[in-house]
Amino acid sequence: MPGEDQTLKRELAKIAIDLYLNHLSDFEENKIAEKLKISEDQFYLFFKNKKQVLHYFYSDCIVQYRQMVRDIEGFEEATLEEKISNFIYMMFDIFQPNRKFMEKTFDSMILLRIKASPFQREVEKVFKDIADSDYSVSAIVKPVVTNPLAFEIFARQFFLIIKFWLGDNSENYQNTMALVDKLVSFFAEAVQTRIPEKALDLFKYVVIDNVHKIKIPFLDRFLK
Amino acid sequence: MAKKIEKFPSSKTERSKIFAKTGLKVGSNYARYYLNRSLKRNNLEEQKQKLHSDNANDIYKELTRLRGTALKIAQSMSMDTGVLPDEFIDVMSNAQYRVPPMNRALVRAIIKRELNKYPEQIFKSFDLQSTAAASLGQVHVASLKNGQKAAVKIQYPNVRETISSDLAIAKVIFKRIVKGKNLDAYFKEIGAKLIEETDYYNEGKQIDYFSELYQSEQIITPIYIPESSTGKVLTMSFIEGVHLDQFLKQNPSKEERDHYGQIIWDFFNVQISHESRTVYADIHPGNFLFRKDTKLGIVDFGCVKTFPKDFLEKCILLFGAQISNDTEKILKLYYETEILFKEQEGSKRQEDIYNFFQGFGKVVLEPFHRKIFDFGDPKFRESLNFYFSESSKLNEVRGSQHFIFLNKVLFGLFSFLMKLKAEIDTRKSREILDQAIKKIESSAAA
């Protein structure tokens, strides 16, 4: 059963994190299995090795986020800004119980990795889903912000915010909350701007349609 | 759909930049005004009004972006001290209700951080769309698990942390417009009150205090719900009712208007002479609810002022001296409450200030001269407006810093009663005032 598998995998990840943080010498596949009272063979049915269990923690956070979002009434109606900030704030809530583990592993397992981690791929998918479900983004900006490279950049920016959160000592992480509020607000404003559309419209009217027969030497030459 | 949230600039540099920009704008408005004046262009009075209006709009526009304490400081300095031009007061009083709300994701996140659970896990229902967004926080309607309707007040992130820097920079701007020996003390007083207002545990206590003392057949106040509250989230029972403007739209009878007017008048007179010296200082139409059961609902207990004994006693004595027109006593009390300064004795400025406060005091205490006082009387409104506009021409803060909140109460109360056009029986309040004066005088004599 997929649900049971997920529960078991979460249990294994929980044990692995505990061993990794508190009994590093016991952080071995057989010990993890033993703690959950399953055989080592059974362990390998779920994970290739102990490192993969730790990576599972990160990827599973996205699974949890998706499950939680389903429970938010009227989420589809949320604005682009609300969807992005909701994702970030919820991820912090999901991360919070394992903050110590993240402090130890986030840099090496996620942030500084040259090859994208499974977690990064999942984060990129979330941004893609948010972009796909939004119609407020300017038509000209849309191709720019909905290509795979953009999602990769967004994911990397998100990791930098996580890094900021991990070092944030303010009460209830107020500094991170204010930063996210500003960043997301700025981003939403930038991608929803109608300036490029209006600029194109003006350009078309003045230069291409050229109803008023205005001669712009440089552009004339350029268009020829 | 949620309204678009404005970004909240919480870093000192960013907030300073906005303040600096505001200062520059105010400066350039003045430059334009003085240029016109030096060129001797016509309609100087009109140009001066335009200058005030431009300044007020520029300050308001920038401060609304800052939300939080900066806007609150601007409101306090314009509305509560009465020293800024009328145009400022108009713009700032509107600002109370026009602050952009937080986005819904941030509301959920704050509740989760403060109460450890998402709103839908704590409440039976929770409206993520705020019903009112003010300078320091916003209010949401919810229902508790037991079905009870509740109001949940949520503070904007980092508001408390910006108080001292906002105050420091705001001082620079306001010193361009207003002068006064006590200006620093005024800012200090506003700062102290802001610290209190951003502590929702404190507001919870104040809700309990007022509920205990004033909940009656005529007044209803919310019940504090501490289990769903923290220092930044405040949950209380929801008070049904309509606001003043809606109430007036229903064309209430004279009896109804007088009824509510009398409640609010008595409420304040009892507080002023109460031994605790603690007064509800946030009188604006948004905080009072007119109910079908004829009770007056009072909400928002963030701004409550406990006056120092010495100050309040002097004010009460001043009221008495002003009513009996005892000029010698009045003069003595003006010095004691720092309205007049010994070192300025005999100066023209001192004489102007004395005449202003004498006239103003007479108007403010006019209700006590009659058994029944009609706040709908246009002559009273005219006299009061005349002194409000004269006070702004003084361009100076006078009197102890505690006057800020006494002014706030008086301006708020009078403007509320005038809007209501209520006829008030002042006999009981006069009795209370006379008793309080006697008590102070006899204890001084003893």
Task: Please tell me about this protein's structure.
The complex is a heterodimer of chains A (224) and B (446). Chain A has 224 residues and is an all-alpha fold. Chain A has three domains: 1-48; 65-193, Tetracycline Repressor, domain 2 (Orthogonal Bundle), CATH 1.10.357.10; 197-224, no CATH class. Chain A contains twelve helices and no strands. Chain B is of the alpha+beta class and 446 residues long. Chain B folds into three domains: 12-99 and 169-176, no CATH class; 100-133 and 136-159 and 198-239, Phosphorylase Kinase, domain 1 (2-Layer Sandwich), CATH 3.30.200.20; 241-446, no CATH class. Helix content of chain B is 57%, strand content 10%. Chain B has helices at residues 12-38, 44-66, 68-80, 86-95, 104-115, 119-122, 163-177, 183-197, 200-214, 244-249, 254-273, 309-323, 327-336, 348-364, 378-394, 403-420, 427-445, and strands at residues 125-126, 132-133, 137-143, 149-155, 219-220, 233-237, 278-280, 288-290, 296-298, 304-306, 372-374, 423-425. In chain B, the strands form four sheets. In chain B, strands 1, 2, 3, 4 and 6 form a five-stranded antiparallel sheet that branches. In chain B, strands 5-9-8 form a three-stranded mixed sheet, with helices on one face. In chain B, β8 (288-290) and β9 form a beta hairpin. Chain B is globular and about 70 Å long. In chain B, 43% of the residues are buried. The interface between A and B is medium-sized, with 27 and 25 residues.
